[in-house]
Structures are given as C-alpha cells and as structure tokens.
Amino acid sequence: MDGTTTALVSAVFVASLVEFVEAFTIVLAMGVTRGWRSAIAGTVAALIALTAFTAVLGVAISTWLSESLLQLTIGTLLLIFGLQWLRKACLRASGLKALHDEDEEFAEQTQAAREADRTTYAGIDLFGFMVSFKGVFLEGVEVVFIVVTFGLSADALGMAIAGAVVAGIIVIALGVALRKPLSRIPENTLKYGVGVMLASFGTYWAVEGVGWFRDGEESLHWPGGKVALIVLIAAWFAVTRLVIAGLSRPRTSAPTEAAA
Amino acid sequence: MKLLKAFGLFWYDFIIGDDWKIAAYVVAALVVVAVLAVNDVLSDGATVIIGTVLMMVCFALGVRYDARRTRP
Asked: Where are the transmembrane segments (chain B) (predicted)?
C-alpha cells in the first residue's frame, strides 16, 4: 500500500467514524425512547437503501464518465465537502461556533422523541423508524460519497470500503459496549483532519480534471505528480491555521476539546 | 411535485450545504483554471498553482466574512 492509498484509507476511515458516531447517537436516542424494534428496523431499511444507492452511484460514475471528467466531478464534490468541514472547524476553533457535542445532540433527540405522538404500523413505532432511517441514510450518503469517490479516483475501492467497514464495526462495538453516546471520540478534531484531507484530494483531482475542457480531454499535470498531494495537505493545514489565528479571540466558555 | 421539490432540496442541502459561497467560489476558481488551460496561457504547473492559490484565498476571505457577520 503506497503513501497515497494509506492517506486515502485513513481519510475514509476517520470520515466514516465521525459520520457513524453521529448516526449512532440518533439511533440510540430512538432506541431508548421509542423502542429498539423501530430503531433497528429504521437502521436496517436505511442500510438497504444505501446499498442500492452505492451500487447505482458506483456504476454510474465509473461507466459514464471519462477519466478527466471523473476527476473533475469527484474533485469538485470533495473540495466543496472538505471546505464546508474546514469552514466549520475554523469557526469552532476560534470560538465563533459551538463545538459539536454528542451528549447535547442525544439530549435534544431524546427530548423530541418523548414529546412526539405514538403511531404504530405492524408493531413498529413510525416516529422511531423514520428518525432512525433518516439519520442513518443521511450520514451514510456522505460516507458512500467519500468511499466511492476516493476509491474510484485512486483505483482502490476495496481499500476504501474496508476503511469504512472497520470504522462502522468499531462504532457499533463501542456503542453496544457503552450504551451511551460516543462523546469521548474527539469528533471536532477528527472533522478538522478530514476536512484538510478532503480539501487536499479535492483540489488535486478537481484542478487535474479541468483538462477535460481541452482538446483530447487530457488531465492537467501537477508539478511533482502525487507528491503535490503532500504539499496540498500542508498548504491547506497552514491556510486554516492562519485563518484561525486571524479570527481567534478569548473564549467565553472553556470547551473540552479544541478543534485543532 | 412536492416529492420532486423535496428531492431537489435534499441534494441542494447535501452538496451546497449551509454556505453557498463555497460552491460558488470553487466553481469560479475552476472556471479560471479552465480558461487558462484551454487557451494554453501558462504551463500546466503554473495553471494548477494559480487555481489552488485562488481557492485558498477565496476560502480565507469567505471564512473571514462569515466571522465578521457572526461576531456580536
């Protein structure tokens, strides 16, 4: 496994871990308040929908797009996702946005679940089912996008899937063992790291893929080839540190975890 | 129609997210790179560096703008 693949698998693993933790919090909240039967049914239904979505997405982008158009499409999506994560990380690190807190999220979800009316169908509480389905599907779609795009672009789909599956197994195992939100996982820091990786790979592929507009659709070439990825990772990290330093001011509260 | 609107909103929210400026400047920077590349104005190396720097500058300015609006 070369350096690029290692970085890719690490990014997929961490991104999946963060998304699975968020999905787990929602399912846990539904399970303890609305019953495990509906929470698990919603989760299983979402996993089936995600499997179908993954198959369609994977076949569609690997069949219909040329190499440079694939790089441009995937790179642009990753870059937009990455910069959204980095923007939030910069605002959180400089105290302008609250840190994401799974305990708080769990409390909000359980409160909403307790207040909702109970409507059942075939013994399944529809509120618990729908909230679990939506939570797992929405978080899962992001994982699917990252796995499919990273995997296809680096020609290492198997490794990317393995990274996501391992992350899922770890979250489920920890969740079943602890039976509470996984708030001790340093989610904000991990999101910052993933944001840097997504932005770096996204920049690399999106700019490379712009060659699709040229005669012959030949991709643009980065100086130094894949070594440029290391420079991009360092550069995006440096840019975000400069932004955070420029925005920082004394915090009014002491967060347990800094987004850095 | 309602379903179609919900479908569209889901993808808008998923791809564009809560800050449309990011998608806007990413596309704008890529258009600049495309213009430079198609017209063969500079070497590939110089073109990709200009595109990357442009994105980084836009990101920094975008976050700075958001921070100014967020501060009380």
From this structure: 20-39, 45-63
Residue from the list A86, A87, A220 with its beta carbon closest to the beta carbon of B37:
A220
Query: What residues in A contact B66, CB-CB < 8 Å?
Result: 87, 91
Answer positive or negative: Cα dihedral of A48, A14, B64, B24. negative
Site from B10, B11, B25, B56 to mutate, A interface, most A CB atoms within 10 angstroms: B56
DSSP type of residue B49:
H
pTM comes to 0.80
Structure tokens at A13: 């693993």
Q: Sign of dihedral through CA atoms A222, A227, A229, A230?
A: negative
Question: Which residue among A84, A214, A235 sits closest to B56, beta carbon to beta carbon?
Answer: A235
- pLDDT tens digits, residue range A151-181? 877 778 888 888 999 999 999 899 888 878 8
Q: Which of B18, B48, B70 sits opposite A207 (nearest CB)?
A: B48
Positions of E strands within chain A: 120-121, 124-125
pLDDT tens sequence across B20-67: 999 999 999 999 999 999 999 999 999 999 999 999 999 999 999 988
Q: What is this model's ipTM?
A: 0.91
